[in-house]
Amino acid sequence: MARHSRIEYDLMRSQSAPARVLIVDDDDRERDDLNTIVTELGYTAEVAENGEQALEKLGSTEVDAIVTDLIMPRMDGFTLLRSLLDRGDLTPAIVLTGFGGIREAVSIVHDLRAFWFLEKPAQRAALDPLLERAIAQKRLMVEAENLKRQLGREGQLEDLVGTSEPMQRVFSLIQQVAPTSTCVLITGESGTGKERVANAIHRLSPRANAPFVAINCAAVPESIIESELFGHEKGAFTGAIRRQPGCFEQANRGTLLLDEIAEMPLAMQAKLLRVLEDSKVRRLGGNEEISVDVRVVAATNRPIEMAVKNKVLREDLYFRLNVFNIDLPPLRHRKQDIGPLADALIRLLNKRNDCRVTGLDPEVTALFMNYSWPGNVRELRNILERAVIVAREGPVLLQHLPPSFHVPPAEAPIAAPVAKVDDSSHLVLEPGKRLPEVEEAYIRFTLKHANNNRARTADILGISLRTLYKRLAEMAAAEKSANSAVLAGGPK
Questions:
Q1: Same domain membership, residue 274 and residue 175
Q2: Whether pTM exceeds 0.90
Q3: Are residues 245 and 120 in the same domain?
Q4: pLDDT class of 141 with cuts at 50, 70, 90
Q5: Residue 412: pLDDT over 50
């Protein structure tokens, strides 16, 4: 390390409490020698005889660096580092290894993200610069974490924006779960930003430098979803001309988002559950089991308990995924975020479309605040993208909005179930109608509202596009059958 850096570091250390180093070694003599070196270097030393004692110490004491042996009774260094990684504890650890264990030590540095390794017995001249750098790294990590928390309180976390109380709760949950390897289940209406939350969890986690892979379970045909998830060998089926790794292998050491998990076929859910339990996959057409280290995040826009009750989602898979739930509020429940969201989206869209739009005109802001936003943040983004392109510069005015944009009254939001069209923008519930009739009328109304855009209709209804097509086909078949019955009963 350069001399000026050492002077700056010493100054920083002298202005605050001495850094605390945890020494973990079952050998009394080695432990005492390390204690002496650490103390002479100006740090405060904590000692533990094995991994179990170390975890107890870490439960009550904050440390800046760990120096640990690998081979110890009760809990060895391997298990200690794995436990720390699973807990999301990113304290830098320097691994001590005996002669001949260098290959294992290198593997641990790579697999368990240890800071560095030293051959025993550790010498002061070698340990000193490593401790310096490890402690400096820990303090940078703490500063970065504090900055992220501050940004969260100010209304932005990664790509997420919101100062409202519901979004602040979401930010807090993301920051709590991100450092761990726990499964997360993200729920919320379509368009609320579930994939962005999954991405934020990944980028704030120790896996941030590894791949983030997302798969939409509703968009993959049932015939190929197993191959997409687990991969296939050459010749596994017609058209399999080469070996192809699946999403689990692609996301190894990283994060896999299973979007629209409730749309996954039940038979596939059983196979997924086994992979989650064993952390091993077998490619389609293969015999070898492949170990994978993947953090799984699942998302769904369905009411999750109803999906389980209706046997669309396996109960055992639900319990396996729902270790940590983050429920995203719809935009209509956090309207104070519309202004900050619009500003952030306009900045992004300006850059993408080479525009210079300055913000929302007050009339547009008032219009947005009175709208129910059935498509949530995705709908806001789509409307703003069109408005930015039309406006090019200056504020977004009413004439820049889509002609179809309108504002249903707050007491009769578009999402209310209805049975009859009253005018172009309202539906009225009529008592005495059967539920299938109400559902069919609402689907037709929503389709009309979305200008026959089936993808947007599915988003507003909170169902997959595949489910919408299936329902429309059923409605068409029923209508055709009714017409045939009328013709059959007509004059001969």
A1: yes
A2: no
A3: no
A4: confident
A5: no
**DSSP-assigned letter for residue 337:** G
Where is pLDDT greater, at 243 or 473?
A: 243
Task: Compute the Cα dihedral for 301, 305, 308, 311 and give only its sign.
Answer: negative
Q: How do residues 250-298 score in pLDDT, each as one tens digit? A: 999 999 999 999 999 999 999 999 999 999 999 999 989 999 999 999 9
Domain span holding position 289: 154-329
Specify the residue for token string 């260098």: 102
For a pLDDT cut of 70, what percent of the chain falls above it? Answer: 81
Structural domain ending residue among the three candidates 147, 162, 181: 147
Quote the number of domains for the chain. Answer: 4
Q: Is residue 456 part of a domain?
A: yes
| Same domain, yes or no: 177 and 61 | no
User: 46 - beta bridge partners?
Assistant: 22
CA pair distance 420, 411, nearest whole angstrom: 17
Residue 158 and residue 460: Cα distance in Å, rounded?
Answer: 26
Give kind and range of the element (H or E) at residue 132: helix 124-153
Residue with tokens 């504002």: 407
Query: Cβ(258)–Cβ(298) under 8 Å?
Result: yes
Burial class (CB in 10 A: 0-12, 13-18, 19+), 292: buried
Residues 66 and 34 placed together within one structural domain of the fold = yes
Domain holding 188: CATH number? 3.40.50.300
Q: How far is the C-alpha of 305 from the C-alpha of 469, rounded, in Å?
A: 24
Q: Which two tokens stand for residue 431?
A: 């008592």
Helix (H) or strand (E) holding 270: helix 266-278
Asked if residues 97 and 122 have their Cβ atoms less than 8 Å apart, the reply is no
Position 433 scores a pLDDT of 62
Which one of 372, 400, 428 terminates a domain? 400
Asked if 276 contacts 236 with a C-beta cutoff of 8 angstroms, the reply is: no
CATH number at 39 reads 3.40.50.2300
Half-sphere exposure for 133 (CA within 13 Å, toward CB): 12
Do both 288 and 176 map to the same domain? yes
Nearest to 198 by CA among 151, 251, 145, 249: 251
Query: HSE on the CB side for 203, CA within 13 Å?
Result: 12
Q: CA 153, 156, 158: angle at the middle one, nearest 5?
A: 125
Summary count for the chain: helices (H), strands (E): 19, 20
* DSSP class per residue in 434-464: -HHHHHHHHHHHHHHHTTT-HHHHHHHHTS-
| Across 444-472, average pLDDT | 78
Sequential DSSP letters for 83-130 = HHHHHT----EEEEE-TT-HHHHHHHHHHS--SEEEESSPPHHHHHHH
Q: What is the CATH number of the domain that holds 430?
A: 1.10.10.60
